[in-house]
Amino acid sequence: MPAAHPLADGLRPGGRFDRWQPLPPRYLVADVDGTLIGEVQTATERVVAAVRAAHCAGIAVGFATGRLASGVAALHDQLGLDGPHIVLNGAQVRTGGRALRTWSLRPAQSVAVRDLCARHGLYGEFYLDDGFLVTDVADERVRAHWELVTGPPAGVVDAVDLAATTVVKATIMAFSPDEASFVVSEVTRLGLLAGPATFPLTPAIVYVNVTHPRADKGRALAHAAGHLGCRMSEVIAVGDGLNDLSMLAVAGTAIAMGQAPAEVQQAAHLIVPDVAADGVAHALQAAAGWRRAA
């Protein structure tokens, strides 16, 4: 499948097109919000059909999301994705309802993130294996997020002993570009990874994912591919956000959504239409065609 072949319908060159040297795909992972789904929390019929076509062609399909596994359960059931899946912004790889690998925050790191939120009046969420704790249960700015994505929090983080609690990932929510930049800078100063992301239904919020220094979507994708026995040149990654850059950097075929920022499109080999035009379906259909032609 050399890059010199004509591109499938809906695909166009990205910033790294001239370095695209993939093998026929065996594994495809797609971001969720802004990629598999847009302003509705279920996939369109076209995306469902494209997932089935990829599966029938022999491609394993998974998602790569900042959400908890439970936060994508309905989508998982709708699409019948076989995985492996990347959740919590790369802090965990899952398959068959169990964790294959988890890169949790150390207790001291969780405490440092909580203290950062307290010092600057920031709203934060602390994700456990199942459920999450928050800095403030009365913050009305995030109620839509709870209702649409996560469900209600399990409690307040100050009510637990973080030194004895395993936090897999934290998320600090920023409500302006300046606040988002500040949060990213402060998280980086703590020696942790900051992965900013957005959600189509809550455009006023920037979700800054906070993970262990060795936990991002790229490292998680490499682990998932290894579990399947795939070379990275046999892997396709599709995403739309800055927190997808690490997986686009390591995938043999990196595909950006049409609405993705310029930095993401420059990091991709290929670009598909935006989420409203079912861009991910174009990627899935192309992958199925490449696999069948191998």
Your description of this structure?
With 294 residues, the protein is an alpha/beta fold. The protein has two domains: 12-103 and 215-293, Rossmann fold (3-Layer(aba) Sandwich); 107-211, Hypothetical Protein, Haloacid Dehalogenase-like Hydrolase, Chain: A, domain 2. Helices cover 31% and strands 21% of the residues. It has helices at 45-56, 73-79, 107-120, 143-150, 177-189, 217-228, 245-250, 262-266, 279-293, and strands at 12-13, 27-31, 60-64, 85-87, 92-95, 98-102, 123-127, 132-134, 155-156, 169-174, 193-197, 206-211, 235-239, 253-256, 270-271. A six-stranded mixed beta sheet has the order 1-15-14-13-2-3, sandwiched between helices. A six-stranded mixed beta sheet has the order 9-8-7-10-12-11, covered by helices on one side. The chain has a three-stranded antiparallel beta sheet with strand order 4-5-6, with helices on one face. Helix 7 (245-250) links the parallel strand 13 (235-239) and strand 14. Helix 1 runs parallel beside helix 9.
Question: Which properties best describe this structure?
Answer:
globular, six-stranded mixed sheet, Rossmann fold, single chain, Hypothetical Protein, Haloacid Dehalogenase-like Hydrolase, Chain: A, domain 2, 2 domains, 294 residues, 21% strand, alpha/beta
